[in-house]
Amino acid sequence: MVPLSWYLALAAALFCVGVYGVLARKNAVAILMSIELMLNAVNINLVAFWHYLTPQVPSGQMFTMIVLTVAASEAAVGLALIISIYRRRNTVIAEEIDLMKW
Amino acid sequence: MTSNQIIFLITAAATLGAALYVVTARNLVHAALALIATFFGVAIIFVLLQAGFLAAAQVVLYIGAIAILIIFAIMLTRRVMQDTGPQTNRIWGVAAGLSLITFSALLASFRLVPSLQQVTPAAQPSADQVIKSLGFAFVDPNQYLLPFELASVLLLIALIGSIVIAADRK
Question: Can you say whether the dihedral through the CA atoms of B92, B95, B99, B105 is positive or negative?
Fold first, then answer.
């Protein structure tokens, strides 16, 4: 049997890798990929707690399904934004997209 | 050490390695392929947690839809980033430190919850039972019918919105 804390440690590590990617990568598509990593880490947490604490109730899996849906919409809209920005300004580097910078 | 633990450790190591490659790779297409490997590792973790439906959804949705979208976006926006020069910005050291601090804080917080060490899996319903209750919960007005319908409306909005945003009007 795998202890619950192992799953939580894996999810924490995956989340922190995603945090690093979001903060450090230049390319906007790479930032979106790191966000997907973080969402996956959250899903691992939700399913692990569902499996260990309340396997009779489907709420844990339900939350994960909602997170999956939101992740899909977020990827679609985010990538559409990146493609639109690329068309207008010919860049996908997050630092150069500074039109609204004060 | 049981076989489940060995499978978990191998999968976790592969998943984390692939995830690290995603955030460090110079070539974005390679990063996207590593991202697919990470999604697959997470699907295996779901199987270990006896969430078969979610594992299938993970493969179909993440690998089948999101990863393909990302690869398309990389190919459509590739000309400007020729995979040369640094792929990280100036604050990457701060970012690495911050994420390491977050990780150690999360690990330390596990110790604050003493009951976490003794948690054992509750009595597992059979796999058929899990799928059945999940399916009923989706369409039961007393359970999750509203979130389910809201999720489909959200997907429709995202579909229309991304077409409108990305459309080339000239």
Answer: positive
CA torsion sign for A82, A83, A85, A90 is positive
Query: ipTM value of the model?
Result: 0.91
Cβ distance of A2 and B53 shorter than 8 Å:
no
Domain boundaries along the sequence of chain B: 1-82+155-170
In whole angstroms, give the CA distance from residue A68 to residue B53.
13
Q: Tell me the fold of B1-82+155-170.
A: Four Helix Bundle (Hemerythrin (Met), subunit A) (1.20.120)
- b/e string for A28-42 if b means 16 or more Cβ within 10 A? bbbbbbbbbbbbbbb
Q: Helix or strand or coil: residue A27?
A: strand
C-alpha torsion sign, points B163, B165, B167, B169? positive
Q: What angle do CA B7, B9, B14 make, to 5 degrees?
A: 95
Residues paired with residue A25 on neighbouring β-strands, in sequence order: B88
Higher-pLDDT residue of B8, B81: B8
**Beta carbons of B51 and A43 less than 8 Å apart:** no
Q: Is A35 on the interface with B (CB under 8 A)?
A: no
Give the global pTM: 0.89
- Residues pairing with B88 in the sheet: A25
List, for residues B96-111, the tens digit of each pLDDT value: 899 999 999 988 888 8
**Closest residue by Cα to residue B1 from A9, A1, A8, A51:** A1
When CB atoms are compared, the residue of B35, B87, B121 closest to A26 is B87
Side-chain-facing half-sphere of B26: CA atoms under 13 Å:
5
* Chain A residues near residue B84 by CB distance under 8 angstroms: none
